[in-house]
Amino acid sequence: VISLQNEPDVTVTYESASWTAAQFQTFCRDYAGAINAPVMMPESFQFNQAVSDPTLNDPAAAANVDYIGGHLYGAGVRDYPLAHSLGKHTWMTEYLVNDQTIATAIDTAAQISDCLTTGNMSAYIWWKTIGNANGLLDAAGAPQRRGFVMAQFSRFVRPGDFRIDVSANSGPLSISAFKDPVTGRFAIVAVNNTTLPETQKFNLGGITTSSVSPWVTSATQSLEQQSPLGMSGGAFTYEIPSLSVVTFTGFDAPVITSGGAASATFGEPFRLGVTATNSPTGYSAQGLPPGLVIDPASGVISGTPTAAGEYRATVIATNPGGAGALDLAITVLKANATVALSNLTAFYDGAPLAATAATAPAGLSVILTYNGAATPPIYPGVYTVVATIDDPNYAGGATGALEIGVTALVRHMTSLNGGINGSVQILTAENVTLGGNARITGDLLAPGMPEIRLNGQGVFSGAIEGDGSSEPGAYTITLNGDAALRHVVRRIDPLALPVVAPPPQPPGTRSVTLDQPGESAGDFATVRNLTLNSSVGLVSVPPGVYGNFSANSGSGFIFGQAGGPSIYNLQNLTLNGGSHIEIIGPVILVLNRGLSVNSNVTFSNHPAEWLTLEIASGGLTLNGDALLPATVIAPSGAVTLNGNATLRGAVKADRLIVNGNATLKNP
After folding, report:
1. Catalytic annotation, residues
2. pLDDT in tens, 593-608
3. Residue 168: what pLDDT?
4. Beta strand 292-294 with 300-303: parallel, antiparallel or unpaired?
5. What are phi and psi of 147, to 5 degrees?
6. How far apart are CA 252 and CA 186, in angstroms?
7. Can you give the pTM of this predicted structure?
8. 411: closest CA among 631, 633, 653, 613?
9. 376 and 397 in contact (C-beta within 8 Å)?
10. For residue 56, which phi and psi values (nearest 5 degrees)?
């Protein structure tokens, strides 16, 4: 800091200079800005504000001034609102008396207190440091009484501290208080400038501390620390000796400013920094979730939670003044897990059929419900499957549909003379007769409560009651001769047959006939009708919408492709003797009209689930030794099996007829 002039407003015998207020204003406005250091003015002999007012009232001049300094010879202490309103610091830069008695030393303490409180100054400078009569140290460098008095302030009130308010001080003591806003360190300086001791109660508002430490300078003590004083109700009482300065030091306890709630996730790294005022020197915590710890130096809570749940922890921050606590609610969320459902298609076998759930991570417990019930279903139908992970540390789920099919789902089966390897569900309450050679390896599921009649020595294991309606009941299921049936399952409510819409009209316009092996049909996008004459061989057909397809002996069609399913829409399919159908991938074949297959028409030995035959109008007839692996859906027609024909798959049709040695086999 550069001061422009010392005591410009007093005439002295030693070398000096006089400045007027106007001269200060001019100099500060025109020249002080060139000084490469903070500027102080005017250091008036009696802190005469009139010397600096013109400069401060001139914005151009005031802009070049940083500090207002002054002396207190023959003057009292007063505030300087103009300087402070402009953000200028005011300093008391010189005072001196040639007296080293305790009384004048305490006068200095009172003057310092007045400068800092009444004058709102930020510095007090004693003139001079060394001198037997007036120095803070004597000629030999030993501290004198006034030096200890000033240390009651300077040792405990440090640069960067803020003065805090002292209110309701009606006694004779001069009291000032200061605090470091970063560390919470505080000092209360009490000056007793009387000849009698004074008992004073100090109430600390806005400060929480466990104790204060008194330091005393008096006629017999020189900046001597006393025993700490405990607090009672935020206050303490102390007897201030006569002609003394007592400084009470302490720390404001930490106040934790972090929020009172946090969330973490099981198995995932977690980090939360605890923040607090007043520079805590240590941290601790109780009740943290398993896997989390607090760093005692930084207050960072970190780790990986090992158990989900709701936790209430107490976090404590400490410093020499005491402790601050925070109730911290930590929610450890369950980690996300996934569920994959499988085994969602099954055929009725009379036993409960459950879906399978696999979890990631593996091995988690899963609760499965089927249309809201915990018990896996038994009977044909579609059931909504809800999978919910049941684990203390993981959450997740999945939804799917479990479809339980049956070998034959038909509206009508008034009689049966052949065999069914599987079970049949009839949808219409009408009389059913199983002929003497009829055999059903599974069950016959029927609506309502039909009467069961046995005529002969057949194999029958009795009736089972389902969970559907008991109506209707006015019809009979009859087993003749050696008919075989595991159970009649009554009270099975009818399901709806699927609907097969007629295929769309083909966009192609060409009718193509192939006569030679290897002959090309051209662009199938333009083909409407295709005829394969004898010995043409197999022709691969891409999925699409077509008209009438016909194959003769030694020829046939290849349907399907890798992946799939491949969808074919045909108005009509004619398979003459010796023709062949090859299925090389999942295929849905939609026919507008029914299909008849004789014994010398062959199909590839593909999995039954690869071919779904949907017939909009009419049905399917298998004759002779015909073998067809397929699921057949013919809601408007009959599926008829004659001779030794075998349908390896399932049927959903209006009617089922099985004669002779023909068999419908569950796939």
Report:
1. 7, 94
2. 999 999 889 999 999 9
3. 87
4. antiparallel
5. -60, -40
6. 7
7. 0.75
8. 653
9. no
10. -70, -25
